[in-house]
């Protein structure tokens, strides 16, 4: 994952101090791209530990078209909790509950989860029902029947529904590409990228999606290309990224999939595993909401 560390160094050296929506402050650079050959190993960051369980469950949640955090909470995935909690705090039901108490209510009270756990029409909704179009099912069919098309695109950015979302999509558009030797590559355009917390997760998520789609369409994984618009390091993550720059990348792990799965929509958590993941210790950082 030298590509990631190179990006960190580049943003620190060439970015500009820039205010942001969260009032945290960033060092920001506009327009950066990385490429990962998926045949060289699964691109999961090794200079700090990444919670792969969360990567898998979030992706399966997207694929299912789900937008309520209850599935994630039930599987101890915390990455989306802050957004519905902030909305809950503005409701008449709020009674000074902490985030932990809010999450426990989501887990144990189905009606409460229905009222306060939904994020609006975020990624899963757009992937599976973009104004009535199941983009993901359509993509799979088109990859099988017309692999060399230049129209293998899924968009999460739906202007008609942006204002209904808890958070407008950061990873907004993906395009898939099939080479003559039947390798499947994916390019992601990400409008906004949190270098320390978000980007390592995004790389792993879309690489994993590429592996899953390759398997069910009879293709081999090719490259993952990550194109970023506003590429930023939050001011309260500077110590963390600088610590990572002192660490040496380790060998990449290997992804293992249940080869009996032939439909993207049949994958479950237990069908996906990593081998030989040996990262440096976790580095914590606060999420900017």
TrEMBL record:
* Active site residues per record: 170 (nucleophile), 170
MF terms in GO: thymidylate synthase activity
Key words of the record: Cytoplasm, Methyltransferase, Nucleotide biosynthesis, Transferase
Which PROSITE patterns does the protein's record reference?
Answer: THYMIDYLATE_SYNTHASE
Q: In which pathway does it act?
A: Pyrimidine metabolism; dTTP biosynthesis
Q: Which is one Gene Ontology cellular component term of this protein?
A: cytosol
Return the SUPFAM superfamilies for the record: Thymidylate synthase/dCMP hydroxymethylase (SSF55831)
* Protein's cellular compartments: Cytoplasm
Question: PANTHER family this protein is in?
Answer: THYMIDYLATE SYNTHASE, THYMIDYLATE SYNTHASE 1
Stated role: Catalyzes the reductive methylation of 2'-deoxyuridine-5'-monophosphate (dUMP) to 2'-deoxythymidine-5'-monophosphate (dTMP) while utilizing 5,10-methylenetetrahydrofolate (mTHF) as the methyl donor and reductant in the reaction, yielding dihydrofolate (DHF) as a by-product. This enzymatic reaction provides an intracellular de novo source of dTMP, an essential precursor for DNA biosynthesis.
| Name of the protein in its database record | Thymidylate synthase
Q: Which organism is it from?
A: Spiroplasma syrphidicola EA-1
Q: Which gene encodes it?
A: thyA
């Amino acid at each position: 994952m030298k590509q990631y560390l190179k990006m960190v160094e580049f943003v620190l050296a060439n970015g500009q101090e820039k205010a942001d929506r969260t009032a945290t402050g960033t060092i920001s650079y506009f327009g950066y791209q990385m490429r990962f050959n998926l045949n060289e190993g699964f691109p999961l960051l090794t200079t700090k530990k990444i919670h792969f369980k969360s990567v898998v469950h979030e992706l399966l949640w997207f694929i299912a078209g789900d937008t309520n955090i209850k599935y994630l909470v039930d599987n101890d995935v915390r990455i989306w909790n802050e957004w519905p909690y902030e909305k809950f705090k503005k409701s008449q039901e709020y009674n000074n509950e902490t985030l932990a108490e809010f999450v426990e209510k989501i887990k144990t009270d189905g009606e409460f989860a229905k009222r306060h756990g939904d994020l609006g029409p975020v990624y899963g909704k757009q992937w599976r029902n973009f104004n009535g179009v199941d983009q993901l099912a359509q993509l799979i069919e088109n990859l099988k029947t017309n692999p060399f098309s230049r129209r293998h695109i899924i968009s999460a950015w739906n202007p008609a529904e942006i204002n209904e979302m808890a958070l407008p999509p950061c990873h907004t558009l993906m395009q898939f590409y099939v080479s003559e030797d039947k390798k499947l590559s994916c390019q992601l355009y990400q409008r906004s990228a949190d270098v320390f917390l978000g980007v390592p997760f995004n790389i792993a998520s879309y690489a994993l999606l590429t592996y899953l789609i390759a398997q069910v369409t009879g293709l081999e994984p090719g490259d993952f290309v990550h194109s970023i618009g506003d590429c930023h390091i939050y001011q309260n993550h500077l110590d963390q990224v600088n610590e990572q720059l002192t660490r040496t990348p380790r060998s990449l792990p290997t992804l293992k999939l249940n080869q009996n799965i032939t439909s993207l929509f049949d994958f479950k958590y237990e069908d996906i595993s990593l081998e030989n993941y040996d990262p440096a210790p976790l580095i914590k950082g606060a999420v900017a909401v």
